[in-house]
Structure formats: C-alpha cells, structure tokens
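ok so I'm stuck.
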Amino acid sequence: MPVRIRNRVFAPGLLGTALTVLVLAGLTNLGFWQLRRADEKRELLSAYAAGQGNRVPLTSGDASDLPRYQQASASGKYESDRQLLLDNMPSKTGAPGFRVMTPFRLDEGDGLVLVDRGWIPVGPDRLVLPGIDVDGNHREIRAMLDVLPRPGVRLGAADDAAGIWPRVVNFPQHDELVAMYGEPLLQPVMLLDPAEEAGYERAWAARFGFEPERHVGYAIQWFSLSVTLLVLYFVVNLKPANRDLN
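replied:
not stuck anymore, here's the structure
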C-alpha cells in the first residue's frame, strides 16, 4: 500500500520487497555468523593460553575431560605397524606433504591415542611412501592436546587405502579411525612437543585462522551492506506524489 511522505509516495513493489527481504536476511545472518566466529576465536585463544600454564598426565580415564591445547605427558609405546599419513597437509612454507600420525599405547588402562609426530614432505613419486618407522620401546612423551584437522569442505570418505599400512587418509573423522583400528581410540590428538625425538617438522603455534578482530570487521561490513540495501530500497521506491503509480 502506498504511503505519502510530504510530496512523495513510498510505493514498493511486491517482488522487489520480497527480494530485498531475502537478501537482507542473508546479509544479516552473515554478520551475526562472523560475530559468533569472533566469540569462538576468543574462546580458543583463552583455552590456548590456559593450556600452556601447566602439564598434566594423560590417562584413558580423563582424556575426554582435558581441554584443547592442554600440555600433557603420556607413558607408553608407539605402534609403528599401524600408522597414518594425513594427506593434503602443507608445511608452514606451503610445501606439499603429510602429517605423520602414530598410535600410542598408554601404560594406564586400555588407552590408544594418536600422536601427530609432525610434517614430512611428499617424495618425487607419490606412490612411494616416506619411511616413518619408529621403535616400540617404552617411553614418556610430551605433547599438546588438539583435535583432528578439519577441512573447509570434506569430500568423500577418509580411507584411501584400506588394509594397507601406513595408510594415506584425507581428513579422517574419529568414528572412521575407530573403525580402522578396531578398538576404542581416545578423542584428543597429541601434537608431539618440538623438543621430543622421533618426530618431524613441528610448528605447533596455535592456528586459529583470522583473529577475532578480523571477524568483527567482516561483521561490520555485512551489517553496512544491510543498511545500504535498506537505503537503496527506500530511495528507489520513493516516487513523486503526482506520478502515476499504476
């Protein structure tokens, strides 16, 4: 219904209004999503800072209760015959390669946990896998707890070579790993401390992507576009009062 404003009439069309509402909803949702991402990053930064303050022993009984980025120690043995190579894992310089994930049998309880021993480059022939053997001697390791790497978009299953070890996988999920190993697997991944032996390239500085402030900046941009859209919608549909509105 047209609305008179002094010598002009605000007379938006139904189709234009519907499209404006849809686009406005999308822009607003993107803005609030960026604000939520900023809150998540703040929580991760707080968790990382808190986890660096002390080191705790990892056991099968308390693994699920320990926070992400907690510094931990564990006693047990590597199981070199069932290792994983995480594909599509570039180094800090961007070179292609694998992350070496080795199961570690804890002394306490019946716990098996994956230890990320670091990054190793791809050879000249991807059909020839790198040598990643590690002895099964009893040892105590230090590490930082983390979650499995997650892609922006995950395509297909993780298992690329069922029945072959070491097994090349792409962004495996926890339930897939449990099926591969055929036994319970603790949820955290242990990022092997750079000072520990039997590892490869390790640069475990917290990788959070954008800082919270960047997300807030993006949110402001989306909200600004929302305001701009509303202004354009109002201006386009504000017509002279003596103009034929039919």
